[in-house]
Amino acid sequence: MAQLPADTSLNLIHPEPRMTIPSNHRVDTLHDHLGHDFGCSTPALLNQQRIDHFAQCTGDDQWIHVDVERARAQAPFGGTIAHGMLLLSLIPTAQFELGVYPRDAANVLNYGFDKVRFLAPVPAGSRVVVQVALVEVESKGPGRILVRCSNTAFVQGAPERPVLVAESMGMVMA
User: Fold this and answer.
1) CB-CB neighbours of 12 under 10 Å
2) Cα 127–chain centre separation
3) Distance (Å, whole) CA 7 – CA 127
4) 85 near 60, Cβ under 8 Å?
5) Residue 16 gets which letter from DSSP?
6) Core-most of 1, 32, 123, 137, by most CB within 10 Å?
């Protein structure tokens, strides 16, 4: 198992979206890119319509997310906020957009999340950016590689205040 050394410091907050894919990024070279910062995703708009749709899909229709008038009057944030799980769901799309998984992979399967923390509320209407870095690569047998990434989400324009941090795992199939 290849892992990022504990003393390696990643610069995990960039103010502008960017994308950097190593030129030799292939399934057989994944371990060579430990610590690589793939940059920031395109901002995702979390407007009320998207929040409402997520609530319908998941059944999580708590008023803090979907009742605009009540949230304005009673919520400590002055309005509705995005679901934490909606934020978490932005990670896989960001990873594919940023090229975390090599193009020569036959498939990539979501393997789960570790160390998930929702650090701050995200008001409806915010644009959220996800920054991704490769932190671990582990062979799981012939043709299978477990990839672990560090993911940090923040509201566009406020990179100094993360709203979500999570480690994600993807099983890369060669």
Assistant:
1) 17
2) 13
3) 32
4) yes
5) S
6) 137
pLDDT 10s digits, 21-65: 888 889 999 999 999 999 999 999 999 999 999 999 999 999 999
Cα–Cα distance for residue pair 37/73, rounded to 1 Å: 41
Residue 139 forms beta bridges with which residues? 145
| Tokens read off for 3 | 């892992």
Whole-angstrom distance, CA of residue 18 vs CA of residue 131: 9
Other beta carbons within 10 angstroms of residue 62's beta carbon come to: 12
Residues 81, 84: Cα–Cα separation, whole Å = 9
Check: CB of residue 95 under 8 Å from CB of residue 109.
no
Tens of pLDDT, residue by residue over 112-162, are 999 999 999 999 999 999 999 999 999 999 999 999 999 999 999 998 999
The token pair that represents 113 in the structure block: 């999340």
pTM: 0.87
